[in-house]
């Protein structure tokens, strides 16, 4: 039967004459209910009277003991918080960055150190929630204040105010004097640490350097008075009462009630006098204006003085609920009799309650002014039912529109291993909820890597990789629809994507995937003019196997060949990933590249780098091999930069060049990146530094060394050849090349010796003579430079 017909039938049933017998049953309900309520009321009356007379008096003593233990535990927490602040500030005060070096540091010139100090103050300020601000004041070499920035104090009043921190107290002390709020009048006051105004913020000061007896600055931590008051308020179990900290002289430092009136101040003063009258007991009952308070107090030992905490909680906060409950029980027990009379009159009308509840649930906002008076309750129910059905259909349609995005997001999290906490049943249930058919299915992963992007620079910019990947993913989805019934494509936005295929068990899904890969290669080549590497995994029987397979594919892709063209790889086919013979690293070309870069010959460096790339990407080389060789070349280039006095960290703006190189897969893009991002900045830096006449002299000397290192060479002979003094040539050589003359000569000879040790079978004596050394001296200098003897180097290279 339809819902509207059910509602109408219920209406006709409610209006059936036979149901009027409920009125005759009303008397039975009324009398029974009155008797039951009378019997239930008697125990309630007795319980309420007993609780009121006996329990309240006993609870006052019990609460006083409990209050003392509770306050002691919370006071330890307050003490720990303040002690942690003292320990934290002492730790920072002994940091080397706040040492004697600040006394002579030019903060304007060394702006990096200045920024580090400001950053450290930010870290210190955020290290604890009670800290409102952290400042560093330096008296030498001139008055400087570090707060949120670097400020030179030129106002004499401010200078005198902050100088007080260096004259007040011990090396570490507490105060509530704030220099930034000081006036000229305050400077003439006594040199006291703590003032008597509880509205002042607490300040913790540590003079620096931490180990010095003659400090020239101070680390200043200003606490948030509101938060300290909130922390102190935890010593009072209830919102009522009073809590405050006072110094040994009895002055209030911080109060848990920052908005205190005259009555509160009078109560606080009276409480201090009572505490003085109970020096040996840490807990007592205190009567004040017809109110009894449980008072607990104790000592907080600070680094320079002892503070006293006082907590007073009214006992009515505990006893009043019991009194109230007792009265409620008595009143409720008596009122239940009257309630029985009232309810009995409505007993016969309870048959209408199900309809009323249904009407209230379906029409919660219904009122008499907005309801059509021509409609009865059942017509209103029918109308609301139709509206809810329409809203349900709309919500279902919106869910169907968002379902593809939810499916793709779930699959991405699944294959990347973010759903490892789910078991097999939970994963299958979630996939079924997203519309996947998983019963009797197998799962296959495919990964696609798009190459040849460097050839598209005319059609796309260098920042359009995400756009190209998006276009390729759309093509993948269109082609896959002709082969598979259930797919989900993942876009990684970095010229790569993946696809999950779900197919019935027993179906040759892998062979279909290989056919699909060939068609995808043709389509992408015709539309985007790009190559693609398709990797096909092994079929999996469970979704839980997919993260492991995805990791295997991510690792295996590094061993694919870097040859131009598209590839279709089978993860189970070892021939696709068979490691070829390890290619030897072209050290000779590396030396030529380094020499060209060192001399600032950009064109020559690019030409040799192209030869280097051709050598490392010869037939059979894998992506892993090419990337490792390029990383080694990058390391050698950066080492050469350090030798020439150029810091790679500053030259490259703090970028991790190794990490950036690892993200590049194509050799052409690697070479373009190496020229534009590594070689060009260095050449420009060297050109700015070098002086042309000295550069030419050093270049001729270096070339002379490279050609005649086998003969006996000296700084004096080379200086005579250039008609210079040995001192002038040595200075110019160091300035241009970044290393001494003898160091460069030794490095050239060592490189030649290592090459002969690796590539020939010459005896050690012959190699020593071939590079311009005597045998005994050659062994010593080789071990000093390389850390092992020539024979050990040759054996290590040959793998013995």
Structural account:
The protein has 800 residues and is α+β, with helices and mostly antiparallel strands. 55% of the residues lie in helices and 13% in strands. Strands 3-2-1-6-5-4 form a six-stranded antiparallel sheet, sandwiched between helices. The chain has a five-stranded antiparallel sheet with strand order 8-7-11-10-9, with helices on both faces. Strands 13-14-12-15-16 form a five-stranded mixed sheet, with helices on both faces. A hairpin with an 8-residue loop joins strand 5 (203-208) and strand 6. The radius of gyration is 43 Å and the shape is flat. Residues 1-30 and 183-190 have low confidence and may be disordered.
Strand content: 5-15%
Q: What is the number of helical segments per DSSP (H or I, 4+ residues)?
A: 27
Strand order of the largest sheet: 3-2-1-6-5-4
Residue stretches low in confidence (pLDDT < 50, at least 5 long) are 1-30, 183-190
Helix/strand/pairing category: alpha+beta
Shape: flat
Oligomeric state of shown chains: single chain
What can be said about the biggest beta sheet?
6 strands, antiparallel
Q: How helix-rich are the residues, as a percent range?
A: 55-70%
**What is the count of β-strands?**
16
Mean pLDDT: 77
Radius of gyration: 43 Å
N- to C-terminal distance = 90 Å
